[in-house]
Please model this.
Amino acid sequence: MSKKEKKKVNDWQTDVQLDIPEDEIWTYQVPGLAAPHINKPYKYYNFKKAIFVIVIIIAVSLSMYFSVMALQNDTFEYTETENGIEFSKFSNTGYLYELDIDYVSDIEYIAGNNDPKTNFKVVKDTEKPITSVREFTLNCDDKIKTIRIGENVEFVDGKAFYSCWALQNIEVDENNPNYCDVDGVLYNKDKTEILCYPCDHDEYLRQKYGYEKELYKDEVTPEYEKDIQTYVVPSSVKKIAEMCFNYANLRVIYLPEGLETIETLAVFKLHERVDQWGTTPSLTNVYSYVADDVTDTRFTTQKPLGEVYNSLPEGLKFIGSDAFSYNQALEYVYIPESVTYIGHHAFWDTCYKDGGELKGVTVMNVAVSEDEFGKLEVGDDWRPKYDWLLFKKAIDVNYSSEREA
Amino acid sequence: MANEEKTSVIDKAKNLFVDFKEHWNTPAEGNYVPYKEYKDVVIGVGANYAGSKTLEYIGFWSSCFLIMHHYKLPYLTFSVIGLLNMPLGYVSALIWWYVCDNLGFLPKKTEKKVYLVYGLMMGFGISTLLFDYSRLFDQSGAFITMLNSFEGMNATACFKTFGTHFLYTGWVGARNIFWRKKLLPKYGRYKYSLYCDVVPKCIMVILIGWLPVYNIADIATRVWVANLLFATYNVFGFGNVLEECSKRISPNLKERILIRSYPVKLSHIFNSILAIILPAIVGTLRHEWADINFYRFVIPITFCISAAFTMGLAGRIKERIPQPPIEKKVQIKFWDGMLGVLKNKYLLINTIVGLIDSLGNGMLPFATILYFYTFRLSGLPYSLLVALISFAGTPPDLLSPYFLKRFSYKQIMIFYQLSRAIGNVIIAVSMWTLGDNLALCGTICVVVLFFMEMTKTVPTTAGHDMGVRINDYQMYLSGERLESFAGIFGWFTGPIISFVGLIIPIFLLKYGFNSNWEILFFDGSRRNIVVVPIIVDAIGFFLMTIPYLFWDYDNKKQNLVMEVLKRRAEVTEKKAQEEGASISGGYKG
Model:
């Protein structure tokens, strides 16, 4: 077939004329197509109907069964690994508010009790200690308030308790050789790494310090800010783990001068309530202090912290990607000379325009000169951007600046 | 020579102008649509399309920003809701198809029975909202503990969600009969729904933004209340019905394609403009996409304006399907409808393609992730990038008539599937190997998306046109288009799709993806969450080429089918007139 002939095959204007007698309009069969079947009985009509219904029922039943099996979650899921038993997934029954991570557990329902809040108990198999906790074991749980980590747990992934909105404190068995807690915040045993500041830790602190209710942004008193919304990272800490402080209700964080690493999303999107319905960014200041014997994480006065600077700590080397993102209440950032790596979007969305006025981090203060800074490993868009003529413009960098005491 | 060419171009322009003037109100011989209606298509379809696209910002699905940012519902919860709704969906579909494919005109007794069934459904649905039926069961029994174990749900929420679907089904079903009977003879089978739905739809769009359901603290309660709110919102449609109508605007294949390629394509410019303006407005809001004011003001205002223009033009766009008068149409019995569509070979091929396509079900919208979580785009830069990629499809679409004439549907669709597969593989490789280099990885992805968009529009046009042709063919086979009964294929594939569609969400959950999308800011998680589903999708696209090898429906067959349909309409109307019967809604072509 030539190209021209091929083209004709698809021509819309194929001229067709059919002379169909009036009594054949419902039965006329176009060549190459199936014959019409209108108002005529089907062969094996009942048999076809029966087959149809049976196939559908089987298909739907199988699908429902397998789908339910796939979607149904055990409350506790574990995986056997070379190093022991790994806690891999937790699905809340809806009424569990405390979680022990020590031994393999299961839910046992109490027959005859029809109250879903109390009709179960957690039973533990003390022959099977948990040795590790997998990433995302708890994911977006909104019920668990307290997690207790047992003495046999050797490894807790940094992302194990992701977005646990109601989590107030993490308690670690004092015999655990790998981890400890400092007033409900998870650290490694020698406190060189802070691992997880629970999302709702402020509620725990309110109960501890006798505040009856959460104060909204405009109601916050200096005392409340000090007791509840300020955190002192102990001087032994060298590293803030991934997602450590994310979504916490903190206004001020004091970091020690010996800190070397702030990991990815470590101080991501801190926020406080403005009213019953809404939240707003909360983190206003990140200070560094020089004292080397600080163990108390509660802020009382600046005295025990020694000299305090409005700056990221001297000695800091690594700022991970999105480390400080979405903290629009932050107004001043100073990057010390020791920093060698800044991840992408490290300070993203810390600056915004409000009624034409630039707010948040409006300039990035850097200790080194422009030439020196050019030698650092810096990710894309590490600086925040603001609205500029319908586009976005990165804020300026103030090179060779000096940090404020 | 140059002068001659110039004169020839001027002459052509003059002839075109004269042609427009002459056939402004009456169509040229062999055609069916006057040019005045072309203008109505541009504005009417444009407004309807822009309005329906605006509604894509609101929806009860996991990728809707309103849901993901404000409601924070677990990703797997949508699968649970789908599962709860599945059994009733099968039963209600039976009645729905029967009603729709008889255009709402049922025997009186049957109609009463159907109304009764729908009424009972609504009654049961309302009662589940008022009472907690889960308390009737043993709370420590296997059934209740199973319901409690579903992600984001508990037994109470499961029962209320189940009941909501009853309420929704009954309400929609009863409206369907009532309004079809009332409006369909006057407005035709595609656009009648606009007239009964537009006002309540506008009200619901406003309520969605203003009702603070997303602030309900308990997640299971938030799930069922949100489900109820969105179910009510979904009772009222605002689909792209005028474009559907314009696909049936002429029995002449060439004219149909021309209208699809030019006025309809031109009408999409309204949406393209909106697609630039809306994100630019979002960029001016303090919390950008996360700002609730977007859903309180921007979306309702945009939608209401689009809806007003749509209603102004809807009456002027006509459907012209050769069909007997409604009073003399073929009555479709339930089982005849079921078995009738099963005879349609081309629907079967499309079903197999859809089944393979389900491999990618449950994957996250890659482009959204790229724009928001890789590039952190917002405002005008976002608009421009999206517009640039959308525009990639416009030039090839203007050439659709050429491509459709030059290549067969089979060739076009095989090329389409292969281009998707290759594009996905390139994106997956670049994300896996260059994930940390945002600029390079992002640029490669954008270029690939651009080419994928370029190669998408012609197959889409071909697909739409073939969809209409398949319905024409069904009308030839069964005496009705059986568009609703065609859903029977979904009955067979639905269970499989439903199960296969769980694979990706369960996999995503393992990598930390749940109700908090901000895990996507984490490079390692983003890579796992995006790349593996893309590879699965690419495999699906390769496999989808196979069924198209068996496609043999061409223009010649279509023209012959249309001749048969015209002849049927002509003979039936003539007989009806001879009998002195009243006739309406017929069209001889």
Residues 206 and 214 of chain A are 8 Å apart (CA to CA). The helical segments of chain A are 3-9, 45-71, 201-209, 222-228, 370-374.
